[in-house]
Design goal:
10-stranded mixed beta sheet, 5-stranded mixed beta sheet, mainly beta, 7% helix, globular
């Protein structure tokens, strides 16, 4: 399942968690260890650039944090990130350089790369968002199946391969430069390849290949116009 591999989704130089992610063939394999990774990395961060707010929260001095934001650890907020009014970071999160976490957005057990935009009423849980990815207003990652069974990743639009992840909680893996339209739902186990776009109000599942446009489940087209 090449489209879903860590190396094919992400530029690992664009996150403080690059060395951590490098060890995993598939990015969702990293989800269970995010908290431990943060607690290990945090004490090694440059005190000239980061302030340790409490036992397991490290915030870059250049980051902008709204006074109404709720921050829970373990947490690293990298340089020049912006955490806006009433953002709710539940913990186990890495927020990349220049990233915006916006009004009433909820973050939980995520690695968010540099320059990501989750600026308006987003829920991002048990997910990894690649460099310069963007989630439109109201778009969310759904991270638990309605029947509470374990999540599988399915390559419907490619080889047809299916991988059992062994995870009950798994939101979405967004590659670099992914655009998610407003009010879309990314179902558990969704993987979106680099530079792909999701139409607004979409309900998405499966692996969406790189450089494609998801219009609806029956219309996934490459940027050169061919359909899957």
């Amino acid at each position: 399942m090449e489209n879903a591999k860590t190396a094919n989704l992400y530029d690992l130089s664009q996150t403080i968690a690059g060395e951590y992610l490098k060890q995993f063939t598939y990015p969702w394999e990293a989800l269970s260890g995010i908290s431990e990774f943060i607690r290990t990395l945090g004490p090694t961060l440059d005190p000239e650039k980061f302030i340790q707010q409490n036992e397991d929260i490290w915030i870059a001095k250049s980051a902008k944090i709204a006074p109404t934001a709720c921050l829970n650890g373990p947490l690293i907020i990298d340089e020049d990130a912006e955490i806006r009014h009433c953002a709710f970071i539940r913990g186990s999160a890495v927020i990349g350089k220049g990233t915006v976490v916006g009004n009433s957005t909820e973050i939980k057990n995520d690695i968010i790369f540099n320059c990501v935009q989750v600026p308006h009423y987003n829920y991002v849980g048990d997910s990894i968002l690649g460099y310069r990815s963007h989630m439109g207003a109201g778009s969310i990652t759904s991270n638990v199946k309605s029947d509470k069974t374990l999540v599988a990743v399915k390559d419907k639009y490619g080889t047809g391969e299916e991988i059992e992840t062994g995870l009950k909680k798994f939101g979405a893996m967004l590659g670099d430069f992914v655009e998610v339209g407003c009010n879309s739902v990314l179902n558990p186990g969704t993987v979106i390849g680099r530079k792909s776009s999701i139409y607004p109000t979409s309900c998405v599942r499966y692996v969406i290949p790189a450089d494609h446009i998801f219009k609806d489940a029956g219309h996934v087209v490459s940027r050169n116009g061919s359909s899957l």
